[in-house]
Structures are given as structure tokens and as C-alpha cells.
Amino acid sequence: MIPGPFNYHRPASLADAVNLLATLGDEARPLAGGHSLVPMMKLRLATPEHLVDLHGIAGLKGIRRDGNRLVIGAMTTQHELLASDEVAKSVPILHEAALLIADPQVRYRGTIGGNVANGDPGNDMPALMMTLGASYRLEGKSGARDVAAAEFYQGAYFTALEPGELLTAVSIPVPPAGHGSAYEKLKRKVGDYATAAAAVVLTMSGGKVATCAIGLTNLAETPLLATDAANAVIGTSLDEASLKKAAAAAQAIMSPAADARGPVEYRKHVGGIMVMRALQRAARGN
Amino acid sequence: MNDMTPTREQRSAALEGMGCKRKRVEDIRFTQGKGNYVDDVKLPGMLHGDFVRSPHAHARVKKIDDTEALKVPGVLAVITAETLKTVNLAWMPTLAGDVQMVLADGKVLFQNQEVAFVVATDRYAADDGINKVVVEYEQLTPLIDPFKAMDADAPVLREDLAGKTSGAHGPRKHHNHIFEWTVGDKELTDAAFNKAEVTIKEMISYHRTHPSPLETCQCVCSFDKIKGELTIYGTFQAPHVIRTVVSLIAKLPEQKIHVIAPDIGGGFGNKVGAYPGYICAAVASIVTGKPVKWVEDRIENLTATSFARDYHMTTEIAATREGKVTGLRVHVLADHGAFDACADPSKWPAGFFNIVTGSYDFPTAHLSVDGIYTNKAPGGVAYRCSFRVTEAAYCIERAMDILAQKLDMDPAELRLKNFIKPEQFPYHSALGWEYDSGDYATAMKKAMESTKYAELRKEQAVKRAAFKRGETREIMGIGVSFFTEIVGAGPSKNCDILGIAMFDSCEIRMHPTGAGIARMGTKSQGQGHETTWAQIIATEIGIPADNIMVEEGNTDTAPYGLGTYGSRSTPVAGAAIAMAARKIKAKAQMIAAYKLEVHEDDLEFDIDGFRVKGLPEKFMSMKDICWVAYNSVPPGMEPGLEAVSYYDPPNMTYPFGAYICVMDIDVDTGVYKVRRFHALDDCGTRINPMIIEGQVHGGLTEAFAIAMGQEIRYDAEGNVVTGSFMDFFMPTAVETPHWETDFTVTPSPHHPIGAKGVGESPNVGGVPAFSNAVNDAFSFLGSTHIQMPHDYWRNWKAAKELGAVA
């Protein structure tokens, strides 16, 4: 539980950070909240030669409204998300999910950028970002580009980030006023990753679902967008049969690993239940 | 007397003696971060040691190459079994009469076993060194399932025992067999079963778990080559035992070993035994002449030092149709892992498991225990437990519920019908114990009234009907547990550790100004001894508790004691305190008689001093007597006021309690909610009700964790899959239920102040209450017994197997 030797860098600007990462190459890792990387280093499962600490870069923090989008700097902590009235008002599911991440001490350090960029299927924010249709700003030596959250995750810890690139901001289209949302997370205890979790953002019209998006956390190697499941409830009043259809469609794309949280069969089963409960709660809150 | 004269109540309250909810004096430093733990010990030139550990559960060690490790800057030495053999320390004795490898000697027998000890100038360098030690292994077939340990073709684990047909506790039946222990009358018990109207039989497992104190095991060893003295700072629940063990195995004169246990961050049985880290740090210090620190990390603690339980108990009860028990038969398969490092009194290979007849009047019983080896971490320690009492209580309390179910009888009613009655005490149990005192029915009925038990059962019936009609997906369980503990080990006639009788001790030294110090053979790990010990003295001799300093943990100054575990401190050392205080009081009475110019017999003790009978104004306070003791003692009397007592208890104490748990379980997810938990404890005389309540809260939280998910689990290859707090269930305040506590008081008749001990009661009684609640919830769907732990997915699995989930 003692990390190996490494060099520590604390650039003051994004340009310096990008330059450092480009120069140092594969042996460098950016450091945000450190809640994933540092434990891996303590187990020596990660042995980066260089850590590029992003805390000195003022421009990477902050939450701002940009037209109908909410733009959140990558180094914004979960605590800051929770403290933001703008987040609570315009994207309440983000507030709800941030509150389910570990405990206050972790949330003081953990960042939204680190959470979404690490590619850990257990993290809560990635599926949420896919559900919300968010995009990520990636910046590297060759410039900046925007990648949709739905296109970002390629495998466990594998993402669209190119070597030397940094995820600098998350941009979320603000869901329409009156939308409903819910994040249902089954976990064993505070601080645990989800056994299964489902995010739902929907709109209702005349008692029926008009639009719907469903995301799934920790039920596959990557976060999942359960499109078939969402389509299964559009136009319905979320009657029991439709809910069951949605759960079955969601379960069809789940491929969780068996772990101490339970066997595959259980995790898929409760995954379906999380989908049904999130749908019902999102509709109720409408 | 004028208005300023304090009343008797005020004088008594000023003492803050027994019965007072005195605030914990140690918390002043703990809450301000000013505790002094082993890891706070930093000595000049101190080195750091850390282990190379085995990735395999069973393998031959072909070669250990330290060439590259020794090149790492800061690495000074790599110690292996070969090094230790030069000082005859490659193996060490265990408290259970077995031997254990300090470092892998030819083989490794469990994952994370200690293979080599790297000594370096700091912990980073030590870990860098570890990563450069190359160990060549040849993997062998691991033995993980205890039920396969004694198969004819089971792999041979302990090659060192080849040809040994008997061990410390008698004959061995198989190469992986450690001992067989039998108690009770087999013939009579078999006869009871042969003519029984009703019998039940169930294999009840108590899974492997771990005490997991927040502070892990650690030490700093410092050898002074000039004086030939070894000082060991360590997380020791029993510092004197460590001193004697070190003296015996390291062949150092005992007076030249100084063991110091500073503040300890929780023990729960984890810190009773001796671990390879202590031996290696001591050897490293002797070799280098410098202090060497060893601090275990969380993974090492969970995977290598001392698991608890892993008892597989095939349990049978014989009874009449009316529900009167007539016989108990239990066979235990006890998985000790790679070495029998169980921390029991030496003559008790399965601890006090023969308390398994519990609170019930069994006319006959028979018990046999087979201890076996597997490729898992060694131990079998008493996790907040008086030596296998938790296992026994779980076994009988689960079995009584199973019997109640078979008889279609309420489990509380079945217990009431079979309790040992107050007039039967002292009660001789079928398996050999003499219970000191108890009033079980009163306690059970009080708990039932407090929880409105009858109404709970009615509510449950309504909910069950609603569930069957498909109106709810939630099931309700009511868990009843009535435990009898056996603590206070123990009387020298049946308890010793490596030949040392299990007495305990107290030395009280009063100072001239009416203050004093009490030194103890016990060692608090959070129990609040500094607070409660002073309260006993306050009441006994009439000096305010605030004026008594309690000191523990330094073997140079403390009288020899056997330490703190198994709820023994109050039953044994608490008695020693009272006896030492009474010696002080006796001398004080002689001094007071001399000063008041009366015969000793004409004096009576009155709260905080002595008064002449019939002459209330003729009074001498204990404070004044202290001064006189150092100023003008009666002619012929030695000055000073101090006493020491070594207390060998005449019997164990038998605390008991009635616990009721109400739980709701969502069958679709297996998620449970503990709606209510009511704990009524009878620990005899109560010294500090606030500390008792705190102890009960802590023990219940551990019981909750164990029953509902806390386990050390291995996969088929012998890899620990629950090696961190991510997967090893350690509940936070969020998960922990609300606790309701209550009490009755049935003093121990043989203890000087009637106290029985309480620390582990909630763990002992709590686990069956939770497990019975889960089992009770599912019973109407047709289940008899569901094994612990009852975590979410297993609850769902149970529901699914019972057809409650599609």
C-alpha cells in the first residue's frame, strides 16, 4: 500500500499541462481528485513516472450556463456540483447522482472530469452523461475537439482520449423545463460502487411518455445507453407491461461481472428493477 | 452542621463512583487527536520493515533471490526463513499448541503468507525492495473447502507434521486433522434422541470473518546492544503474555524485555496473538542494532493476521411434542486455516464452545469438534468473543428457532418453556459449566413487553397474508435471541495460557494528598478502563474517581496480568481492583481508629471516610487518612498506603440478554431494513451505564455487520476476494440501525462487586437475532435455515429458491 517513486508536476495553465503530457508521453498521468489513480498507485497496479496535477489550473474549474447548455469545468468537484443552485435547478439528476457518490470527504476531492474521463464502469457520472446527451471537450497538442459522451467509452478504462489529451469540460444540454428524472442506485453501503444503477430522463405529454433516455451504470464494461428500453416506454403510460418490457430490453444489453456484489444473474435482475423504479419515479416527479 | 455541609447524596455524587455515567477521561485526548498510538512512536534512526507475501494459497518456494532488492537505495537487509533459522526463529509456537512459520520455510500455505522481510530506511524504500525480491514458486493444489480437508486424497498441507499421529490436543485422524475434542455423555444423549418425539437436524455455518480494528497490528522493536535489552512498543491486548512469549522463544532474560502497549485503536481479539511481524521486527532490530517499525496495512490485516469463526456446526435437538428439550448433539468442523493459531486458553482447543447448551435446561448433551487445516490464513481468534462463545450462541439460538418452526410454536414461547429457572442457579450444565446466576424469564418477558412482541407477530401475520395475495413485495421478520455468555477467563483450575494461570491484577498506590494511581494487568483498546477502573476505586475507598489515575500497558510498571479480551477485564481485573482497594481500606481503617482514638470495630465506612458508630461528628475522611499514612501512622505500622491484588476468580461469570430484531426485506432486490433492534442486557452490577451503552452499541454494530455481510471469502484457488473495506462489509453510520437498549441486574454472586462483563455480549447475542430475523422472514415461504451472511444478493437468492421471485 505504498506507491512507487514518481515525479510530481503542477502546471499553472492548460497549455503547460498539455505540453507536459505531450513531452512526458505514456509515463505521465494527469491527476485530478486522485480517488481512482492514487489507490491504484498504492497497490502498484499503476506506476506512472510522472503525475501532472491539474489543481493549479484555474480555468478548469467552474459551472456556467451557456445558452441552453450547462458547461462544467473538469476540475469542478462533486461537492461544488452539489453546492450549485444552477445544477439543482436545471439538471436535478446531476445533483441527485452526485449525492450518491461516496461520502462528503470523497466529494470534496473527487471531480466530474476525473469521474467521466477515467473510463471506470463503476463511476456514476458516465451513464448519466450519456443519458443527458452530454459532450466532453478534449484538448491536446493538436487542438480541441468535442466528443459525445455516448461515443467516448470503448471498454473498461478505455476511452476516446488520445495520448496527451485532457478532458477539460463537460457540456450538458439542459433538459426541457418540466422534465422528469431519477437516478436509482443499488449499493451495499456508502462509498460502494453500484451493484446496479439506472438513470432516466423523460418528458411526459398527456399522461404518456413523450421522450425518454435511460443510462445504466456498472452493468457492463462501459456505461450503457439503453435505447431499446427507452423506446419501449415512449408512448406508454408506464403501465406494468411496458415497464417490464423496458426492463427486459435493458437486461438484454447488460453484461455485468460476478463480484462480491452478487452473481451475474442477480446484478442483471436488479438492473432491471432499477430501470423500472427510475422510470416510475421520473414520471411521478413530472 | 451548617447549610454548607454537603449531603450524603452530594458526597456520594462527588466521587463519580459505580453507577455514575461518568464521561470517559480518555476521550479528552482521543477527540483532540492527542492519542499516542504505535505508529506515533518515532525513535532516532528507526528503520522500517515490510513483507514480501505469497500470491499463492499453496506452493513450494523454490528460490528467493534478493540480489536486486539489496541494490535498491535504502534497503539494508532481506530476512528469510534461512536467516531466521540461524537464530532458531523460523517457526514460532502458537497459543493453541501448534507451530507456525514466521517466514515461509520451503512452502507457503495461504495467500499473503509472509515470505521475506525487507528492512529499509523508510517505508517507501522497503516497498521498493519488496517489488525487487524475486520468489520462484511451484504451485500446489490448494485445499479451500473444509469439508474436503479429510478426504483420503486431500493434499498434504503440513509437511512438518508428517508422521505425527498426535498433536497438542490428542490423536490426529488424518494428515489435515488437528484435534478432536469431545464433551458430554454420548450414550445418554444418543438414548435421548432414540426416544425423542421430535428432533431437528441442521448444518449451521458461522462463516469466516475478521475483527478488523481500525488500527492494524503494528510494533516498534528496539534492541539496545550495550544493555542487551529489547523494548517493544506494540498493539498488544496482552502485553505481559507477549513479554513472556518473547523471552521463551528469543531466549532473552525476561527482565531485559520491556513491552509497552500505548493507546490502541481497537482490538476485538485481533491483537492477542503473536504475529510474524513482531518476530521479524525484533530480529531485524537485534541484527541491525536499530529500532525497527512494522505497520500492517489494511489488506495485510484482513488477509493474514487472525480471522475469526469458520465453524460448521451440525446441530441436533431432541424434544417432546410439547416443546421441552431433551437432548442436544453438536458436531463442529472447525477450519483453522494453515496453522492452529487460535487464541484460546491452552487446554481448550475449541474454547468454551461447550456453552452451546445456552440458556436452556438440557438434561443431556454431547459435543465433538474436529479441527482441520486448510490453505487459508491461520487463526480462529475470539472476535469480540470469549473463545467460541459467539459460535455456540449462534448455533443454539438458530437451532431453537428451527425447533420452534418444526413444532409450530412461537420461538419466544419455546425459549420461555426451556429456560433454566432462577432457583436452579448455580446451575450445572450438561456440558460441564456452573452458571453463576440468572433470571432469564424476567429478562425475556421484559424485552417482549418493550417491543410489544405479540403485536409484532400479529402485524407479521397480516403482512404475510398480503404478500401471498400479491399486494406487497416486502416480507417481515422478527428475530428473537436469548444468549448466555461465559466470560471472565478464568479460574486457574481450568484456564491458563502457556501454563500461566489466567488471573489478573491491580496495584493501587495512594499519594499523601488523597490522590492515587492504579496500575493494571489489563489493557484497554477503547473499552474506557481509565474511566471505569477509577470508578470502582472511588466507591470502594471514597476517593473521587477524578483523583485516581489508571495506567496500563507498560510491563515494567504494571503488575503481571493476562490482558484484555473475552470480556475478562471486569470479571477478573475488576475484582482485583476491588480486592486491592479493600486492602487499602483495611489499612485506612486502622489509621482512622488510631487517630479517632477508638477501636477499629467501632468504625463504619461512610461514603468517603470512616465514622465512629453512634458519634456522627467523629469522622475522618479518606483524603485525610492518605495524609496521615505518610505523616504519622500508628506505632508499629509501616508508612504508605498501597496494595496489590492478584485475583484468581473462583468461577466464570455468565452475563445474558434478550434481543429482538424487526426487519423488512424487499424480495425483489434482497435489500433489508432493520426497523427495530431492542437489546436487553444483564451484565450484573453496572459500573458505568454510559460506557455499557456504548459497548452495546459497538458490539451490535459488529453483529449487524457479521450477520448481514461481513465475511472473509476465498475463491476456489484460495484467493481472498474480500481483502479491502470495499468488499469486506464495514458499516458506516449510514448503514447502522438505531439501537434500543435496556437492562436487568442479576449480580454475580461470586464477584466482589457483582459485575459480569458486557463488552462482547452484543456481538454474541446480536448475530443470532439478525440471522433469526432473516430466517423468520423467509420461514413462511418454506425455508428452514438460510446460511449467513445475509447480504442483499443472498436474500434475493433465498427468495428466488423459495419461488418468491420469478
Q: If you consult CATH, what is the topology of the largest domain in chain A?
A: Uridine Diphospho-n-acetylenolpyruvylglucosamine Reductase, domain 3
What are the segments of chain A in which pLDDT stays under 50 over at least 5 consecutive residues?
none
Q: Strand tally of chain B, please?
A: 35
Radius of gyration of chain B: 28 Å
What is the multimeric organization of the chains shown? heterodimer
CATH architecture tag of the largest domain in chain A? 2-Layer Sandwich
Globular, elongated, flat, extended or rod-shaped: what is the shape of chain B?
globular
Shape verdict of chain A:
globular
> CATH homologous superfamily of the largest domain in chain B - what is it?
Aldehyde oxidase/xanthine dehydrogenase, molybdopterin binding domain
Give the SSE string of chain A. Answer: EHEHEEEHHHHHHEEHEEEEEEEHHH
Distance between the termini of chain A: 48 Å
Strand content of chain B is 25-35%
CATH fold annotation of the largest domain in chain B = Aldehyde Oxidoreductase, domain 4
Look at the helices and sheets of chain B and give the structural class.
Answer: alpha+beta
Number of helices of chain A: 12
- Which spans of chain B of ≥5 residues are poorly predicted at pLDDT below 50? none
Word description of this protein:
The complex is a heterodimer of chains A (286) and B (806). Chain A is α+β, with helices and mostly antiparallel strands. Chain A contains 12 helices and 14 strands. Chain A starts with 6 loop residues before the first strand and ends with a helix. In chain A, 49% of the residues are buried. Chain B contains 19 helices and 35 strands. In chain B, strand 30 and strand 31 (615-621) form a beta hairpin. The A-B interface holds A 1-5, 44, 103, 186, 188-192, 195, 259-263, 266, 269-270, 273 and B 50, 123-124, 126-128, 131, 297-299, 668-671, 709, 713, 721-722, 726-727, 729-732, 734-735, 791-793, 796-797, 805.
